[in-house]
Design brief:
The protein has 213 residues and is mainly β. It has a single domain, classed as Elongation Factor Tu (Ef-tu), domain 3, CATH 2.40.30.10. It has 4 helices and 12 strands. Strands 1-2-11-10-7-12 form a 6-stranded antiparallel barrel. Strands 5-4-3-6 form a 4-stranded antiparallel beta sheet. It has a two-stranded antiparallel sheet with strand order 8-9. The chain is extended and about 70 Å long.
């Protein structure tokens, strides 16, 4: 299994041995524990569930589910992959290597209600000669079927949705401080959670599980 959950700290810069400017995002990774292992014989597919963080109050089903791993995980993730992991095993930065490419999934920053120019990159209208159509969306209707068709690009809530940024390079791994330096920008606000996963391995393993099923 090649996935781990962390917390985005800040975006900063580093300099390589040639003095080149390298933009990086610092991610803190800790408290990742395997909470459940699924097998084909029992569940119909192979997968590993792992949790991260600590939740102050758990209900009884959550307490029972997490009892074997002796955790109070606030976030749970499932990765379809053959694995020899056992419940209670710790997941750390040893699963990643410097220089490899990973995908990062997170919740993007919320931007509230936005118009079509910012939300969908619409062109603006003329600013002079009495024009009242500078940032308006323009006509949205059709002769038939005399209603607004679903999926019409209009103003609305923007951001605060799940986003995956692909092929970010692991620039540096600081195992002493449990920090990961990813080259480039990571979605989400500072102090928000991010899921880091290796697409190559997971896609291959999912395909193998699907074939077996």
């Amino acid at each position: 299994m090649r996935a781990i959950y962390g917390k985005k700290l800040i975006m900063t810069r580093l300099f390589d041995e040639k003095g080149r400017y390298i933009p990086v995002t610092v991610v803190e990774v800790s408290d990742n524990t395997v909470t459940q292992v699924k097998k084909v014989e029992k569940d119909g597919y192979e997968a590993v569930q792992f949790g991260s963080g600590s939740k102050k109050h758990l209900n009884k089903p959550q307490i029972g589910h997490l009892a074997a791993s002796k955790t109070k995980s606030a976030k749970l993730f499932e990765v379809k992959t053959p694995t020899e992991s056992k419940v209670g095993d710790k997941i750390n930065l040893d699963i990643l290597a410097e220089g490899e490419k990973v995908n990062v999934t997170a919740i993007s920053k919320g931007k509230g209600f936005q118009g079509t120019v910012k939300r969908h990159n619409f062109n603006t209208g003329p600013r002079t000669h009495g024009s009242n159509n500078y940032r308006q969306p323009g006509s949205i209707g059709a002769q038939q079927p005399q209603r607004v068709i679903k999926g019409k690009r209009m103003g609305g809530h923007m951001g605060a949705e799940q986003v995956t940024t692909k092929n970010l390079i692991v620039y540096k791994i600081d195992k002493k401080n449990n920090r990961l330096y990813l080259r480039g920008a990571v979605p989400g606000a500072n102090r928000s959670g991010v899921l880091i996963w290796s697409p190559k391995d997971i896609e291959k393993e999912v395909a193998e599980v699907t074939n077996e099923a």
